[in-house]
Amino acid sequence: MYNSLRNVAILFAGSIVLLGMLSFSAYHEVRESLEYAKSVERIHIIQHEAEQLGATLKELENSHKGYVFTKEDQYLNLIFASKEQISKLLASLQRKVKDNESQLFRLESFKRGFRKHIAFLNNSIRAIRTAGKVDNDAVSKSQIQANQMLRDLSSFQNYQKQLLSVRGMQKDQTDNQMSRKMFLFALFTVILLLVSFGLIFSELRKRITFQDELERKIEELKRSNSELEQFAYVASHDMQEPLRKIRAFSDMLLIRQRAVLNEDGKSTLQKIAKSSERLQNLINDLLAFSRLVNKNAQNVETVSLDILLSDVLKDLSMLTIEKNAIIEYDHLPTISGVSFQLHQLLLNLISNALKFSKNGIAPHITIRYRLLLGSKIFNIPEVKPFLTYHEITISDNGIGFEQEYADKIFMIFQRLHAKSQFEGTGIGLAVCKRVVTNHNGYIKAESVSGHGATFTIYLPNNRNEE
């Protein structure tokens, strides 16, 4: 499953990269098109100005001829206007082709020819205005120079046309390459997306199958739990009744036949009664544990731990007096939980503290409480650092245990001492673990053999935050 998800992630990442490359290529293509459009527009503008330059040069020649033939001053105004226009157009073209040395060279040649042409025109005009006659040599040289300028300008225009043609070919080649590249990007992207879809579809089918299997297992667990509940019912009724009769008849036999029974018979009946009592306690503890496993039996309500602690201490008052125990406790909070479960939790922990006491030393039990952040709780990785927890510690001065058994003691039927030393079924601390787990909390045990034990409970401040 992990490998499938990783493959899907890789394929999607590849698709995103290809889409990014496709987008970049499209952006690059748009930029290239814009640059091409600008360059073509610039070439057309230069061509247009070159055509204007040629037309103005011809107008200058025509105005000169008109003045030569008519000697009228209105042609002088036209000549002056044409000269100004040619100068402006020439300067504009030089600015526009400043990065092209060959074109600048052509324009420089045109400019030099234009200076000579103007000199010839001035000589021709001066001869007419001063001597009243036409300087045929100046007119002829002016015409020759004008033709040379037109040839230079034609060369300039031809270069611009070739440049436009080359740009067009480059653009077509670039467009073809870019089209193929974008097609390949799009093709690979579609392939990757299709493969990703196939993997996702396959993964969904696996998960649906897994979900169906999980639901089937859940139904089996429900049936199993139902059977366990039926077993608990049988254990609480059908099994306990014969057990009570065994105990009752063995007690009756011991009382009625005491006079005729020898010591061996009396010892045997006492062992039967003791074993029956131990079996009765085991059944009761198993029933209590089964109630904790059954979620339907959990009625969540607001519970005052102070009141529960008071009830527990009343239940254990005879044992407390018998052992001369000292029990100190803080004010405990009111929380959201299951009352009978929390009662069992406190009852088991305090009764254990009383039970596992040292011979000849009065038990001293302290119950402390504080509210703290999860980030202040160490050695429990599952604790959520941003939640607040109720911390309840129950410490005693009893016999304790080796710390290496701190986890083992919470397992059902696990005992660290022989039955002959301390009575019990080995279920009490398993019940405590189950109660705390049902309340989304944590419990840990710390001890040094011969120096008492400390049990610490952490319950969330608000179960709705979970």
UniProtKB/TrEMBL annotation:
Q: Which reaction does it catalyse?
A: ATP + protein L-histidine = ADP + protein N-phospho-L-histidine
Q: Which Gene3D superfamilies match?
A: 1.10.287.130, Histidine kinase-like ATPase, C-terminal domain
Give the residues annotated as coiled coil. 43-103
Q: Name one Pfam family in it.
A: HisKA
Q: Which GO terms describe its molecular function?
A: ATP binding
- The record's EC number reads 2.7.13.3
Keywords carried by this UniProt record: ATP-binding, Coiled coil, Kinase, Membrane, Nucleotide-binding, Phosphoprotein, Transferase, Transmembrane, Transmembrane helix
Query: Any idea what this protein is called?
Result: histidine kinase
